[in-house]
Amino acid sequence: MTKESKKKYNRLMEKAEELFMKVGYKRISMDELAAAAGISKMTIYKHFSSKEALFTEVLIQMIERHFAVIAAETEKIPTSTEKIEYMLDYTIKNVENYSIHLYKDLMDLPYVMEAIIKYKGKKLEETWRAIIREGIEKGEIRPIDIEFAASFFNHLQYSLHNLIMKHEDKGIKWIVANVYDLIKYGILRK
Fold first, then answer.
1. pLDDT in tens, 81-125
2. ∠ CA 100-101-104 to the nearest 5 degrees?
3. Which domains does the chain have, with CATH numbers?
């Protein structure tokens, strides 16, 4: 890729992410994406076979950035319980960056949703597995089935998407905060 081509690609990815996050997938056309990036629609099609392919790549790059931040931050955190708290808080803080339109549009794009959940799920399970294993080794977490626990936290993303659709009037942050409150504190009195 030439230097100029790389610049156009980067500008496209930046503008596509900005617009997809703000208005969702369905409410933006390829013409609007091209105009926002200051490139031709033909240039977009040189890199991506469809708007769906562009959308998927934007989401994958976002996931990569999020997990780079998570890895760097959890490395600095001394205890596994604080790392778990960080992971839960990170989701609550970042979930507000995405419009309800984005979540709805993802639900209507099963192939994209499946690809993203699979990609994100692999990274999420690796992260949870490492945190839980470390916690057990340090005696900070009781001995539990690491694979099951990592899978549980990964599968929460499915539930979160469904809960967001069902309770969208409450707001995304409210939904995620309540789910994580149940995880952290349970429902039974001590």
1. 899 889 888 877 777 777 778 878 888 898 998 898 889 999 999
2. 90
3. 50-185 (1.10.357.10)
